[in-house]
Amino acid sequence: MTSKNWPNEFVCACATISLLLCWPLAVRAQPPAAQTKTPAVALLDASDAVQWRNWTRELGWQVIAPASAPGADIDARVRALAAAVETAIRSGSVDPARVYIAGRGDAGGAVFYAVSRMPDLWAAGVALGGSPKAALDTNRIFTANFTNVPMLWISGDDSKPMVDKLTAAKLNLEWQPASSGANPVSLIQWLARHKKDAFPLAIDCETNAPAFARCYWIQPTKFDASERNDVLASTRIPGGTGAALDLGGFGFRTDDPGPGVLVTSLPEKYSGPLKPGDRLFALDGKPLASARQYLELMEKVTEEKLAVVTVQRGKDRVRVETRITLPRRDAGITSRVDAQYLPAEKELQIVSRTITEMRVTVAAEWVPATLVWNGLTLENLKEGGCWVLSVQKELLRAEKCK
Questions:
Q1: Within a 10 A sphere around the Cβ of 210, how many other Cβ atoms?
Q2: Three-state SS for 6?
Q3: b/e map of 111-121 (b: 16 or more CB within 10 Å)?
Q4: Would you give the DSSP letter of residue 215?
Q5: For the chain, what are the domain ranges?
Q6: Are 98 and 195 contacting, i.e. CB atoms less than 8 angstroms apart?
Q7: What string of DSSP letters covers 288-330?
Q8: How is domain 244-325 classified at the CATH fold level?
Q9: Closest-CA residue to 190 (of 238, 152, 142, 245)
Q10: Is the distance from CB of 136 to CB of 239 less than 8 angstroms?
Q11: Which DSSP helix (H) or strand (E) runs through 167?
Q12: Are the CB atoms for 167 and 173 separated by under 8 Å?
């Protein structure tokens, strides 16, 4: 689904809150304590900033929403958001333990992607509507990266199959149907319950891109695909085929009963053949019963090909020649690091795959401790701080960072 619509029940609550009829009453009784560093909500879509500022103004929270460059891909947007968050943290105005990422519609689905790319920035994430399907179709969603980042997804009942898929993969997800009466007050309360530890006792991260290789107190710096480790399987959640009509990213509701697929929105400066209110009535001469059937058909496509779409526009039917496209898939090899500090044993255990060098920041309260990497004891640590672990001529080494 690419629609940016909120769940209907949530829209009603949002309208009430934005008119300040009930939200201030919920928070005035408990004014925020004075503090120099505040929680922050980070947004991939800057157009949501006004709404979130209305919701969090009396709590003193900040909203971080950098404008995206026109045509910027999702990785560029994630990096820009991360840079804005890190700048705010360095300024001393934002509490690094209470940075939350949120989005609605398309940006809601993209929250899953951002968490998977940079898990160590966020205390929790929330997606309002939308679907993580497009994120899964990139083959870059790894459940390991959600270990310390709980996700809340509020969506329609039609999302249940996707919810079942994510929970079966052990993604750290809490789902609430839009019909449950979710509202901004409960949403803020849910976020506020979560806090990120500076040094989590257990961390687990996987990535397919060195540019996104970061994991709390471990920073992988060198990689070798031949350094395999069957102990660490991939936690990638497989996506669908990702097939779509090359018509310019039109929005539609997956729960629309049909007939056909109703076009509810189009991107800004759209120059394709569709108009809002169009219905995709048939594909290659075969009627489309509903949006759900359209998605099921796309999931069965395994190769790109030409296609003809019949569009119902008012009383007219328009023939549109297009093609079905498939997304570019990433290579299957990934890097993963799974580490934990065991207080009772005073031991730091690190297991990695395809990583030949990493920088490890050891908390001062963890030492003295024994450092074990991939089953081998490397060092008896007498002091905390930064250590470089490396594989040199098939030997593991540990030394203080220079």
A1: 11
A2: coil
A3: bbbbbbbbbbb
A4: B
A5: 8-196, 221-236+331-400, 244-325
A6: yes
A7: ---HHHHHHHHHT--S-EEEEEEEEETTEEEEEEEEEE-PPPP
A8: Pdz3 Domain (2.30.42)
A9: 152
A10: yes
A11: helix 160-168
A12: yes
pLDDT in tens, 359-383: 999 999 999 999 999 988 987 899 9
CATH architecture classification, 8-196: 3-Layer(aba) Sandwich (3.40)
- List, as one string, the DSSP characters of 345-373: TTEEEEEEESEEEEEEEE-GGG-SEEEEE
Secondary structure of residue 228 in the 3-state scheme: coil
Q: What tokens appear for 145 in the block?
A: 């990266």
Measured at the CA of 114, the angle between CA 110 and CA 117, to 5 degrees, comes to 135
Q: Residue 364 is which amino acid?
A: A
Neighbours of 67 (CB within 10 A): 11
Tally of residues, the chain: 402
pLDDT digit string (tens) for 91-148? 999 999 999 999 988 788 899 999 999 999 999 999 998 889 889 888 899 999 999 9
Does residue 70 have a cis peptide bond before it, meaning omega lies within 30 degrees of 0?
A: no
246-299 confidence digits (pLDDT tens):
888 787 877 778 899 999 888 777 888 999 899 999 999 999 998 888 888 888
